[in-house]
Specification:
It contains seven helices and three strands. It is mainly alpha-helical. Helix 1 (6-14) crosses helix 2 (19-28) and helix 5 crosses helix 6.
Length: 125
């Protein structure tokens, strides 16, 4: 399974290649995991009701994991690893601990996040 971060979802929702085609395939195969903070960011940036509905539909239909306590774990992890000093925020730390918890890979277009992810945790197209 793959955790796509907000940057990947944005490119997908805009229909930008090559992300669009690969994400579409992964979604059809139910290989993408939806995380609450990623979808929260997507909804925050939605420009109208139609965009909010599209995002909400993906949220309802994309596989999820148990996210209980992940914010606390992410905060601890970010503090211990000094993520903020590396330019990695709490949501990115959340994505990282979700990946560690589930042993899934992270697909991101964010260079700062890519730099701190362990290479075996990175998904590339």
């Amino acid at each position: 399974m793959i955790i796509a971060d907000t940057s990947v979802w944005i490119e997908f929702l805009k229909g930008n290649e090559p992300v669009f085609r690969k994400m579409q395939t992964l979604l059809e195969n139910r290989e993408i995991i939806a995380l609450e903070p990623v979808f929260g960011e997507l909804l925050q940036g939605a420009k109208n009701k139609r965009e909010r509905q599209v995002i909400t539909d993906y949220w309802k239909n994309t596989p999820r994991i148990d996210e209980s306590e992940l914010w606390i774990v992410a905060g601890l992890y970010a503090g211990e690893k000094k993520q903020f000093a590396k330019g990695v925020g709490l949501i990115d730390s959340y994505i990282m601990v979700a990946s560690l918890k589930t042993n899934d890979r992270v697909w991101t277009l964010d260079e700062k996040l890519n730099k701190v992810l362990q290479s075996e945790s990175v998904y590339k197209i």
